[in-house]
Amino acid sequence: MSLNVLILGAGGQIARVATELFLKTSDAHLTLYLRQAQRLGRANTDRVRVVEGDVLDLPALTAAMADQDVVYANLDGPLEQLARNIVAAMRETAVRRVIFVSSMGIYREVPGEHYRSILDPYRDGAAVIEASGLDYTIIRPAWLNNRDEVAYGTTQKGEAFKAKDETVSRKSVAHLIIKLATTPGLEIGSSLGVHREDN
């Protein structure tokens, strides 16, 4: 049976790369959820369903969540409230697995970098996911680039972030997301820093 994956914030740059990788490397069926569906154009496969909606609209989100196996959220904005709605919709629909993209620096784990208020929404959103009791993995990528490469390493929460001055490719982050989504039990309850590293 193929995997059903709900991608929240599907118009974002990492999400677009992840969508392409999911279709190339897995048999997953994707529901692409975003505020402006026209940003994606027409899906050219029956494995993709596009839903126009806002994560802040809990009834619409809950409807899109039905029959999903994995939720992958790549959002910006009021992340604490967005995370609360994701958790509420997942509980309502009995979906357990969530992959939530945040930012490096939310735990003051980047050597030499001081905590900045710009990270507050990312920290607060991650805290909601961590307290949810769901099968979560949080991803905290370094600054991003568009290189066509998969070259990354990860650190766990509590470890210093590595290679903080190097950018990591969106393709690398997408590769990790697909691996997490398609490997049962992988890194459940983890918060992973993602840095560039030659493999």
Automatic annotation (TrEMBL):
Q: Which Gene3D superfamilies match?
A: NAD(P)-binding Rossmann-like Domain
NAD(P)-binding domain residues: 9-184
The record lists the membrane-crossing segments as: none
> What is the designated name of this protein?
NAD(P)H-binding protein
What would be an example GO MF term here?
Answer: biliverdin reductase [NAD(P)H] activity
Organism in which the protein naturally occurs: Rhodocyclus tenuis (Rhodospirillum tenue)
